[in-house]
Amino acid sequence: MLKNVLITGANVGLGKETAKQLALKEGIEKIYLGCRNKEKAKVAQQDLEESTGKSIFEIILIDVSDLNSVKVAVDSLNGPIEALVMNAGGPRGVNFNDKTKDGVTQIFAVNLLGHVVLAEELIKSKKLNKVALYAGSEAARGIRIMGVKRPNLKSSSVDEFASIANGEFFGNITDPMIPYGSIKYMGAMWMASIARKHPDIRFVTMSPGATSGTDAMNTLSPLKRLILKTCFLMLSLIGNSHALSVGAKRFVDCLWDESYKTGVFYASKSGTSGPVVDQGTIFDDLNNKTFQDNAYEAIHRFIN
Is the dihedral of CA 66, 71, 75, 81 positive or negative? Predict the structure, then answer.
């Protein structure tokens, strides 16, 4: 049973739906809505209060692409939280490949670097004490049905992982889906590594699967948005996508059910919907502790 939880990207899509489902769980006393925009956060807070009948939602302003914002958000918490849902992310629009002041691409910052700093600052300040969930993706092990290839690393060295973070691994690209799977793979590897460093906290990577109603595509160009929407429609027709509520339920079940093991990446057994399994049974590199620690070290090259 959990009493309080912080969710990033909580004003829309999966984050908001996860907050809604968690509010209805027995024992939940506080849900922190981690959001970039205060006005949008207030709208979401009001909607959640009306839909759940609960006044347990508190806004935490946080932009996970800005490490200073992340640290301020951690400082703003009055006390510890029992659970963290690292949900914010997505393709990051037309400027996804631009570098941040920390030397990583925008898409890497919002999907991974900011969450690494968030989780580790919470741990350092003793403000996270039970479970951390990172939103993964089947793209991290390849999605054959969508033509998404498995991340193709030659050595899985620290330098190679660092080249994913700063974008050099991919060169001059215009499609954010090219680095997306590799970044999510790297996130799962970081989670596996940090799980061994902090055995008192459960660290689980969980993919929500292919969900309809998410806002992740809204930042893409019209053409790429049309292509992805077409892909999602095709997935729906063959039973390889599901409702937003199903994706959020994966998160909630993972938080509540301790049979989801620490350090493990769970996602669909096949395709992008249906039962979830340990992805290490599909993609053996996920089980390699040296690779996991290399990903961890590469990320920390960009954290001052």
Answer: positive
